[in-house]
């Protein structure tokens, strides 16, 4: 099947209708957008194109689909679904501002299925809030999902994910609205390390993580990394595509064998999103 093929296939959404007009997380800055809507819109178009180019240069195939007027956060398709082994489980959004995305992404994913890029498309039941790969991240090294819950996704969704995919799902409760999705503060890297912000997780979640992952495989992120949305990164093997970083973080990741590719994603950070949020892995497999 095509979804088993190499290279990696990533979904992105054209930023034609992107803006920051409301605030449903602490990062969203509609007032800042209003100061220069034309300039920031132009920057967003350029940033999306630069991210796509960086991903393609790193070996990915990018499926770019249209956005929809009135749904500016569609540019963050990581929140649209969880995909594994050609099967997609579509999200249910907690905030009314994003619920219009559900029907639009259902149509997009049915189109991908019709093209043979997916085998199955299903939806969570209404009221079972779960916001896609943003809160359910596959760890290829360990063969299970890490699932964030609290600010956006419900604890009940963890069981629904495990039932649908037939793989382990390890719940991690999020403690900070700044890390409203797990992907803002948690990133399994291609070489087996986990790059994470301790302050994003409850003490119980930290205990769960540290019981499952040895200390030498954990890389602690800083508040500076959080502000730069560096943890919200796309991994293509040992290549890590992320928003603009710092010399300290570059040195830290390079010392572990990773190559960083940095893109200025400032206009999207005004909505609380980075590189991972702006993509969805359609070719993710439980067996490499």
Account of the 3D structure:
This protein has 288 residues and is of the alpha/beta class. It has a single domain (2-281), classed as L-arginine/glycine Amidinotransferase, Chain A, CATH 3.75.10. It contains 8 helices and 15 strands. It has helices at 30-35, 37-57, 96-114, 156-165, 203-212, 223-227, 247-255, 266-269, and strands spanning 9-13, 61-65, 81-84, 87-90, 120-123, 136-139, 144-149, 169-173, 186-188, 194-196, 218-220, 234-236, 239-243, 259-263, 280-281. The strands form 5 sheets. A 3-stranded mixed β-sheet has the order 2-1-15, covered by helices on one side. It has a 3-stranded mixed β-sheet with strand order 3-4-5, with helices on both faces. Strand 10 (194-196), helix 5 (203-212) and strand 11 form a beta-alpha-beta unit. It starts with 8 loop residues before the first strand and ends in a 7-residue tail after the last strand. 45% of the residues are buried. Mean pLDDT is 96; it is low at 1-5.
Main beta-sheet strand count, sense and barrel state: 3 strands, mixed
Supply the number of structural domains.
Answer: 1
**What ranges have pLDDT less than 50 throughout 5 or more consecutive residues?**
1-5
Record the strand order, biggest sheet: 2-1-15
Name of the CATH homologous superfamily: L-arginine/glycine Amidinotransferase, Chain A
Q: What descriptive keywords fit this protein?
A:
L-arginine/glycine Amidinotransferase, Chain A; 29% helix; disordered N terminus; alpha/beta; 3-stranded mixed beta sheet; 288 residues
